[in-house]
Amino acid sequence: MSNVQPTExxxxxxxxxxxxxxxxxxxxxxxxxxxxxxxxxRLCWTLAWLDIRLRYRGSILGPLWLTLSxxxxxxxxxxxYSTILHIPAHDYVPYLALSLVLWNFLSVLVTDSCYAYxxxxxxxxxMRMPYSLYAARIVVRNVxxxxxxxxxxIAVDLVLxxxxxxxxxxxxxxxxxxxxxxxxxxxxxGALCARFRDIPPIATSVLQMAFMVSAVIFRPELLGDQRxxxxxxxxxxxxxxxRAPLMGEVPGWDSYVSAVCFSTVLCLAAWALFxxxxxxxxxxx
Length: 285
What we know:
Layout lengths: L10 H29 L1 H15 L8 H21 L4 H25 L7 H6 L4 H30 L10 H25 L3 H15 L20 H13 L6 H25 L3 H4 L1
Helix pairs in contact: 1-6, 2-6, 3-4, 3-6, 4-6, 4-7, 4-8, 6-7, 7-9, 7-10, 9-10
């Protein structure tokens, strides 16, 4: 509600009423946008798969190049860092493989989200489609890539004869949280980067710094008494609530609290921004 007080002629009261009506209308349009995009899930899946096929057009292995390159990276880094960190390869390589696969999903998702709307400029200007569909397209595309790369994790577990056990069930709610966060990131960064073109390089720099401090290539236990600091790193906690169950471990309560709080703030911020600027995206791209 507006804080403007009504005057004798009621002019400010009418202005406040119109402002409330305008916000309510934007909210209804945003809800309708999301509902329409949900009804077009087949189109979203087709566009995401087409993106991958076009990216690897003319390639013999296609998307499997991602799996191969990830596998080679895990093998090389596993041999080197297990020695440097004095951790047995049997314990370290599965952790590294899962960490790199999940981190690649996060980093590529953030990078792609920055261009969710700007790269779709032609479609936005020539046809009417819900704006949330472009964000969902980014998420589905990266989930498909993750499905290819998860083969590396399965292969490592089979070779080293490791299995997470029944604790892996805890990964299911974490996956739901990841999908919600992924959609929120695509909506939020897509809109912000359409308006402010300086954000993509900033996001890249933040990801580089986050990679070094989010326990991707080292285990959190190596921090000793300073491990509690990781609870304030949303990249680590979001990663930990999914990675730990797949490693046969139960995430700490601090990871769950931090991940849920961060996700709540992220989703609310993305929704508030989408409601406010949805009608302006076509003019920004």
